[in-house]
Amino acid sequence: MRFIPLFSGSSGNSSYIEAGGTRLLVDAGLAGRMITDALDEVDVRAETLSGILVTHDHIDHTKGVGVLSRKYDLPVYATAGTFRAMAPIVRELAFPNVRLIRPGEDFYIGQINVIPFATPHDAAEPCGFCFVEGGKKLCYMTDIGCFRESMFDAAAGSDLMFIESNHDIEMLKHGPYPYPLKQRILSEHGHLSNAKCGEALVRLYETGVRFAVLAHLSRENNTEELAFSTVLSALEEAGIDDMQLVVAKRDRTTAIFEI
Length: 259
Ligand SMILES: [Zn+2]
Ligand SMILES: [Zn+2]
Prior knowledge:
The structure is a single chain. The protein has helices spanning 32-41, 59-62, 65-72, 80-90, 149-155, 169-174, 179-186, 194-205, 224-237, and strands spanning 2-7, 14-19, 22-26, 51-53, 76-78, 98-100, 107-109, 112-118, 127-133, 136-141, 160-164, 211-215, 244-247, 257-258. By secondary structure, it is an alpha/beta fold. The longest helix is centred in the last third of the chain and has 14 residues, at 224-237. The protein is globular, with a radius of gyration of 17 Å.
């Protein structure tokens, strides 16, 4: 399984996943051209994709969905709530390319078993995804206000965790955002802090998780160094010294991960 985070953060999200000959995008939250240029750089032609999976309706996850689907005739997989809420951004899709999914109901795209699971976030009907193929499992969870038991169950044993590490709580509290926005981000339907991400990874370690990509960092309320050091300290305090951590890049391809 190959996984390439192309963009990750509040200014736009899109990742590429390939397994068993099937190629997918998870989220397309930038102009279509930005995403196809990023794919070109890793030698992937957009016309060879099998579809776009959408976590939720926010524009940093949906901006390029409509354009890419129409231009390359790509199926779009999302929950009913996400389809409804993102319609003004995505606009009309060819009917066969509207693929309704439900959290908890897995399905296949080519050889990839896709397992959507509900996430707590202030969007219409958000979800995360697990991808399983050839005995490997990747879990994609960003835009989560908290880490619930059901998400722990979904993520358990993943070979790669792509998990939100959105903000440093002190930076957010003392930062420039208006109070209501701070409250929204800190709420159980907002975004996961570095500290909470660390706690989640300590728990997931017990299930065999050894590799995590910290994702969706806030530009205003986090730095790559803070996200990395906060999560690392949480792991060290729990006596864990063999978890590999990488911080996803906001505006460019992070790396090509093979699991
Ligand atoms: Zn987002
Ligand atoms: Zn969001």
